[in-house]
Amino acid sequence: MKKTWQIVMAGDGGQGLIVGGRILAQAAILEGKNVLQTQSYGIAARGGYSEAQVIISDGEIYNPKCETPDLVLALTQTAYDRYCEQVDENCLIIYEEDAVTPRRGKNEVGYPFKDTCLDIGSLKVINSLFLGVILKNAPIVNKESMVNSIKEALPSKLHEINIKAFNVGVGSE
């Protein structure tokens, strides 16, 4: 497994990016890794640009920003455009295929996040879904750690639908 991961999750406010970053960070903490999680968002709580960055490492973390992301989740065209030209060719970009027109041509994965959430029954499970898709494409943490972190972060009444969304993303449901 890779020693250090730098993950950027970006899109619009209200898409669960900050909570998703916290859940991913907590899953790594449960595995005894060093973690740094930062977030930034516009003045509008919903609809403005929003971003969570998570650095996970077996060793010390010296920089609070993802300087060379290994993975970028882009849920909007703005988020995709912000990182598409900045990241190196080894960085995997996972994007919302209904909202983003990709142009890099390699090391990209499109996923129908919104449509899949609607099939599951709620747009509010998008963070659990995208965490599953991230894990399907990159072995950042174990599935069990992520499920436990989802359960810690969310009220018990939301566990079943969010774990279902996570499993759909991972591809195990």
Keywords:
173 residues, alpha/beta, Pyruvate-ferredoxin Oxidoreductase, domain 3, 38% helix
SSE layout and pairing:
Layout: E1 4-12, H1 17-30, E2 34-41, E3 49-57, E4 71-74, H2 77-84, E5 92-96, E6 108-111, H3 113-120, H4 126-137, H5 143-153, H6 159-170
Parallel strand pairs: 1-4, 4-5, 5-6
Antiparallel strand pairs: 1-3, 2-3
Helix pairs in contact: 1-4, 1-5, 4-6
Describe the structure.
By secondary structure, this protein is of the alpha/beta class. The protein has a single domain, classed as 3-Layer(aba) Sandwich (Pyruvate-ferredoxin Oxidoreductase, domain 3), CATH 3.40.920. Helices cover 38% and strands 23% of the residues. The chain has helices at residues 17-30, 77-84, 113-120, 126-137, 143-153, 159-170, and strands at residues 4-12, 34-41, 49-57, 71-74, 92-96, 108-111. Strand 4 (71-74), helix 2 (77-84) and strand 5 form a beta-alpha-beta unit. Helix 1 crosses helix 4 (126-137), helix 1 (17-30) crosses helix 5 (143-153) and helix 4 packs parallel to helix 6 (159-170). The longest helix has 14 residues, at 17-30. The two termini are 24 Å apart.
Reported by name, the CATH topology is Pyruvate-ferredoxin Oxidoreductase, domain 3
Total number of β-strand segments? 6
Determine the mean pLDDT.
Answer: 92
- Radius of gyration over C-alpha positions, nearest whole angstrom: 15 Å
State the helical fraction. Answer: 25-40%
Estimated structural class: alpha/beta
**What percentage of the residues does DSSP assign to strands (E)?**
15-25%
**Number of alpha- plus pi-helical segments:** 6
What separation lies between the terminal Cα atoms? 24 Å
Strand order within the widest beta sheet? 2-3-1-4-5-6
Task: List low-confidence stretches.
Answer: none
Number of structural domains: 1
CATH superfamily descriptor: Pyruvate-ferredoxin oxidoreductase, PFOR, domain III
What is the CATH-assigned architecture?
Answer: 3-Layer(aba) Sandwich
Oligomer: single chain
